[in-house]
Design a protein that fits this description.
This protein has 11 helices and 15 strands. It is an alpha/beta fold and 399 residues long. The protein has one domain: Glycosidases (TIM Barrel), CATH 3.20.20. Helix 4 packs parallel to helix 5 and helix 8 runs parallel beside helix 9. The chain is globular, with a radius of gyration of 20 Å. The model has no long low-confidence stretch (mean pLDDT 96).
């Protein structure tokens, strides 16, 4: 089974504003760097307000720009995973005005039409008007690009339970069935859904076994640096979340998002916003992060994960640091394989060289037995199962 390597992509100098300020040559230059790093796949994000400014209108400009992105990827032999309904990204929610509710969100601010607002989203899972708008976006994009050679898979969304949690698990399942069905009616490409570690340590009404019914590939997003019961540089936590996801869903798993915010100096704690709250976050020394990444990739391969897509392509340029979300979410500036000046970090070298080391690695059969009532106590089950996994898979290395 091929092990794919990839990277999540926002342009270094544009971040979430790249569709509004699209430059084809910028994409070509940065995708060329990704190709030089010997990566296979790029995950990109279709910012909702840029692709669907009104519920009944899809932006022809954004569709044309997406075609240019896919054409560049094809030239460079890169696969692309376009992600719909963005949605949640880097500690803030990005939504068209027509999706907004009149009530504040309990955790996150929303960026809409150039403004930061204390508003949440309408019921994107059950509101019939919103569902029809969602259908239009899915049908338009999937049918337009189904035969494009660069499409590796479609991603339903990115951690969308951070935008709004479905009222019930049944509501979440119905919505997934709806979106999956629309994509499959319009495209032959695989479908996945960007769930994250909150979906295995909390009950946010996207149960993995339900997600698996309407996914061709299961995904997981996990960060040891965000975990409160293990070391930030624990190289086994991210692989474990894939094993747990596979055990819960019964399908192969792609580690779609994982990474480490870094600093060129000593590891340090900083105050940085996570949504509406300011908390302590780590910035990890670059060399230590590279050692962590090498061990993590090795373990991801050994436990049978089908691939690893790093977060993120680049640190963001200093010109973005005074605008949301980077003005307050300081740690979000520094997750890149590249530094803000475009130079390569040690983690980039690890990604580039990893395929050459796969030949010396072996897959290992590691099984996790999950209780049928897992979501009655997801955090307790997660911690217990991780402890059992660690006893089988060896002690954490590094600190």
């Amino acid at each position: 089974m091929e092990f794919i390597l990839g990277v999540n992509y926002w342009p270094r100098k544009k971040a979430m504003f790249w569709w509004k300020e699209f430059e084809e040559e910028e994409v070509r230059e940065e995708f060329s760097v990704i190709r030089e790093l010997k990566l296979d796949v790029v995950r990109i994000f279709l910012l909702w307000e840029d692709f669907q400014p009104l519920p009944e209108r899809i932006s022809k400009t954004s569709i044309k720009n997406l075609e240019k992105v896919l054409d560049i990827a094809e030239e460079l032999r890169l696969g692309v995973i376009p992600t719909f309904f963005i949605g949640h990204m880097s500690g803030i929610n990005w939504l068209p005005e027509w999706v907004l509710s009149k009530k504040p969100h309990e955790r996150f601010f929303t960026y809409s039409n150039g403004k930061v607002l204390d508003l949440g989203a309408r019921d994107i899972y059950e509101d019939t008007d919103l569902l029809e708008a969602e259908r239009l976006l899915l049908e338009t994009v999937a049918s337009e690009f189904d035969d494009h050679p660069a499409i590796y898979a479609w991603d339903i969304s990115n951690e969308i339970d951070n935008v709004r949690i479905p009222k019930t698990p049944e509501a979440g399942k119905r919505w997934l069935k709806f979106v999956y069905g629309v994509l499959k009616e319009n495209s032959s490409k695989p479908v996945t859904f960007g769930i994250h570690q909150e979906d295995i340590q909390e009950n946010k009404h996207f149960h993995v076994w339900d997600v698996a019914r309407f996914n061709d590939i299961l995904c997981m997003h996990a960060y040891s640096v965000y975990t409160d019961f293990t070391d930030p540089l624990d190289p086994y936590f991210v692989p474990f979340t894939c094993l747990l996801t596979q055990a819960l869903g019964g399908k192969d798993v792609l580690m779609e998002e994982f990474g480490m915010p870094t600093t060129g100096g000593k590891t340090q704690k900083i105050l940085s916003a996570t949504g509406k709250h300011t908390t302590k976050h780590y910035l990890i020394n670059e060399e230590d992060a590279a050692k962590w990444l090498e061990k993590t990739l090795k373990a991801l391969y050994e436990v049978g994960t089908i691939g690893a897509i790093y977060w993120n392509f680049s640190d963001y340029h200093e010109s973005l640091w005074d605008i949301p979300p980077f003005d307050k979410a300081i740690h979000e500036r520094f997750f890149g394989l590249l530094r803000s000046d475009g130079s390569l970090k040690p983690t980039a070298m690890v990604m580039r060289n990893f395929k050459d080391k796969i030949g010396g690695l072996k897959r290992k059969k590691v099984e996790i037995e999950v209780p049928e009532n897992y979501y009655d106590d997801p955090k307790g089950n997660l911690v217990r199962l991780y402890s059992e996994f660690r006893q089988k898979f060896g002690p954490v290395e590094g600190s």
